Amino acid sequence: MDQIFINLLNGLSSGLLLFMLSSGLTLIFSMMGVLNFAHASFYMVGAYVAYSLVGIVGFWPALLLAPLVVGLLGAAFERLALRRVHKFGHVPELLITFGLSYVILELVQLIWGRTAVPFTPPEALQGSAFTIISSPAQGLSFALGKAAPELCTAALCSTFPLTRAFMMLVALLMLLGLWLLLTRTRVGLVIQASLTHPEMVEALGHNVPRVLMLVFGSGCALAALAGVIGGITFVTEPNMAVIVGSIIFVVVVVGGIGSLAGAFVGSIVIGLLQTLPLTVDASLASALTAMGMTVTPDTPGYPVLRLALKDVAQILPYLLMVMILIFRPKGLLGTRED
To answer: What number of other Cβ atoms are within 10 A of residue 151's Cβ?
Structure first.
């Protein structure tokens, strides 16, 4: 039971990290119609920039400065490159962002090397947020931080890292901040109006291209913030963009392209779908056997039926995406049919 609870929290934390990434991608697409293939690369750059800044200003200032630096880089890219090809349609936009991802990867390897860098969390985020103690005599109990060694000698202890708890807190604060920004501020009203009525917004004196540039830079900054937290939680290496790159688009498709609420729901679903099945040894064959059916090596499709759920956990999000595209192309909470 304690392991299931820890896996549930791991799935929620992974899902919230995916939301931190997909929220920026969703904002960019809903505002500009650009599916930014380099979004995961900005996530990677955020981790590496923060790693370099930690040695100069410390972790907590780097946590704020790294997203600002990456946001400025993203805004500069939109102003100097992406805006120039916008008039030629979506294909050139996709190609230039796709090419940017390769350029960023080569620059990261040139500056920081091809191996992982020792980006460790600060002392305040090291250790465990809490420990679950499972004892046959007393059942489940919780201890904040790390439990005393004598408690874990006679019982099974499961810990939840403090970095993951911090990740969940930041993601929830980001969700609240984005909702307040888009629904309760003048800036949010201008952004939403620029999405639906850009000519009217420009007639009222607002610089729509500048708004789009700020939105693109803000989306890159959100990805960089996720990169800083993901860098100290997992591993900061050149392949970190590849690891999350494809799953971000799965989240956006499942949740609904252009929907911030859909990105949140899709992130949680994908996070849980990636984590919870990892501890399940059951297969379709065992499920059919439990229902009274006979499954043998001669049964049609037996190689697939005998696969344990934990063995196919990595492809479950992609299977869900295929099902969504077949039965609900606009996603769970999306409104666009295209």
So the answer is: 14
Q: What is the pLDDT of residues 277-311, one digit of tens each?
A: 877 777 777 777 777 777 777 777 777 777 777 78
Is residue 283 within 8 Å of residue 305, measured between CB atoms?
A: yes
H or E element, residue 1 = none
Over residues 188-210, the mean pLDDT reads 77
- At 139-157, the pLDDT tens digits run 566 566 665 555 565 556 7
pLDDT above 90 for 113: yes
Are the C-beta atoms of residues 333 and 265 closer than 8 Å to each other? Answer: yes
Beta bridge partners of 283: 308
Q: In whole angstroms, what separates CA 275 from the centre of its chain?
A: 14
The structural domains of the chain, with segments of one domain joined by +, span 2-122+163-241
Query: Which pLDDT belongs to residue 335?
Result: 64
**Sheet strand arrangement including 128-135:** 139-144, 128-135, 156-161
CA distance 217 to 108: 19
Total number of residues shown for the chain: 338
Angstrom distances, CA of residue 255 to CA of 9, 78, 258, 297, 331: 20, 26, 9, 39, 5
Per-residue confidence (pLDDT) for residue 148, from 0 to 100: 53
Return the residue matching tokens 């050139």.
92
Q: Supply 296's token pair.
A: 């043998």
What does the block give as tokens for 118? 């020792």
Written in H, E and C, the secondary structure of 295-327 is: CCCCCCCHHHHCCEHHHCHHHHHHHHHHHHHHH
Would you put residue 258 in left (φ > 0), alpha (ψ -120 to 50) or beta? left
pLDDT in tens, 25-59: 888 887 777 888 899 999 999 999 999 999 899 99
Give the C-alpha separation, 187 to 31, whole Å.
Answer: 13
Q: What's the pLDDT score for residue 217?
A: 93
- Mean pLDDT over each residue of the chain, to the nearest integer: 84
- Cα separation, 3 vs 9, in Å, equals 10
The amino acid that residue 211 corresponds to is V
Residue 111 and residue 105: Cα distance in Å, rounded?
Answer: 10
DSSP-derived secondary structure for 81-105: IIHHHGGG-HHHHHHHHHHHHHHHH
